[in-house]
Amino acid sequence: MSFVENLKIKLKIFTGDVFGGINSAIITLPQALAFGVATGFGAGAGLWGAIILCFVAGMLGPKVPLISGTTGPVAIVVASMMIALNNNLQAAVTVLIMAALLQLAASMTNLPSMVKYVPYPVISGFMNGVGVIIIILQLNPLMGHKAMPSTISTVMGMYNSILSINKEAFFIGLITLALVFFIPKSVNKYVPSQIIALIFCTWLSVKLGLNIDRINEVSVALPDFVRPDLNLQHIIKYLPYAFTVAIVFSAESMLTGLVSDSLTKTRHSPRRLLASQGIGNFVCALTGSLGGTAATMRSVAALNAGATTKMCAVINPLLLIILLFKCSGFVAQIPLAVLAAILIKIGYDIIDMKLLKVLKYAPKDDLYVLFLVFLLTVFYNLIFAVGAGITLAALLYAKRVADKAHLVHKPVYDQEIMEMERVLEQDYEHKIRVVHITGQFFFGSATQLISKFEEMLGTQYLILNYEADDLLDISAIFALEDIILRLQSQEVNIILVIKNEEVLKQLKDHSIVSQIGAENVFYKEVDAIDFAKEHLLGVR
């Protein structure tokens, strides 16, 4: 490779990282301010937390571009913790330091790899619950009132809140909602609707002289060191809060890492990711800033803008620092009703629309888990909800297995077919491959199976033979969809062999059959092999 070609490649990578950093910073700014206010730490702590965590975790973390900061689940957990600690900043900082140390300890074990075994309905129920919590808690600020400490108190007090509504705050909040929800995607692709709404509605509220609550003060100075509470009795008392925060910090970071791997077709080190997040959150806590996780929405925005290396995680905080020092006067004028409207949109975006669209096709067991986690998340406790969901999913799975535990005489797999497959791959130089999915394909095996389909180099036709009679749960269906998308991106033609009519109906209901084409689905493997041969020879 010549010097000029090498320079062009490096320039392209750098340009992609710059645009990725800018794009993610534009999304981060309103969210960091809003989450800072919502948690009780303050807008400045939210913004400085995004700057510090993104920089530290970006520098120390995996090579994949990950943008870190406070997210919806983190904001809900931290806000609940602050209420429980009577808004004691020193106590809150102590909890966050302990949570960061627990993250570091977890990074030295095999716990980071365990996140792949969490069933999809648990994750979906949790995220849907968090989205609904954010929306409910922001209804009072949208109407010009102080936020209530819980969803139940907000709902119970809604009648009185409506009677005493601040019309000016509600007016500017409604305009903000209209902008964040209805700005066309063609515009939102280049300039996020949240930043447009933030700038326009703040300007409008100042221009009209509206008498509404605002941020008022955002410190542009570097955050100060906050001394933690080192009293042993207090530390023991804070330990349950620290575990809760650490679990949310870690789980969301791990999930964001999985999303990033799926988009970049790479593999990161879960341990390194968790360690870098732990160190970043430790630094945030010592400076009184708001910690967080690797943020899925911001990381995806960076990747979509062309980011390919961790350099975008350095550019993002640098841009935020410039905005903080240059625009602190403007930031102080941002109405709380505007931030509430932006958070309502964030809550809506967190809700798992992908699953809701196929809810009527989901197995009953998945629905039981989903609704249990959702209700417990909204009305009780986030971490208890996840634990209860995993336990119920495991019990329901154990019941399904136990119900099928009976002796069956089954013939040995057809030796002629096995020999045909061996000759097929040799004669056609692996342009046609046959892969058998044996055993139960469910949430425990779905993500494991995805890793088997990394690069099918040279393969033009891949025959997936699902031999089991067991129905697929929602995790397995989405995993199969992910496998098909990966292979199709490598220009591999997918052929399915399905021997169970109910499984085939499931795949039709979830549009997987239409995704690969009904003509590519067979009952017998021999027919699928003949089909692949004919089309391969036709292409030749």
Structure description:
The model is unreliable at 405-413 (pLDDT under 50). The protein starts with a helix and ends with a helix. With 540 residues, the protein is mostly helical. It has helices at 3-39, 43-60, 72-84, 89-107, 120-137, 139-142, 151-156, 158-163, 167-182, 185-188, 193-207, 232-264, 270-286, 296-304, 312-326, 328-332, 336-350, 353-357, 364-379, 382-403, 415-427, 443-450, 474-489, 501-509, 512-516, 525-539; strands spanning 68-69, 293-294, 432-437, 461-466, 493-498, 521-522. It folds into two domains: 3-393, no CATH class; 415-539, STAS domain (Transcription Regulator spoIIAA, 2-Layer Sandwich). Helix 23 links the parallel strand 4 (461-466) and strand 5 (493-498). It is globular and about 75 Å long.
Count of individual domains: 2
Net shape: globular
Average predicted local confidence, pLDDT: 83
Question: Helix count, per DSSP?
Answer: 26
What's the arrangement of strands in the largest beta sheet? 3-4-5-6
Q: Strand pairing plus helix content: what structural class?
A: mainly alpha
* Cα gyration radius (Å): 26 Å
What are the segments in which pLDDT stays under 50 over at least 5 consecutive residues?
A: 405-413
The beta-strand count equals 6
Largest sheet: 4 strands, parallel
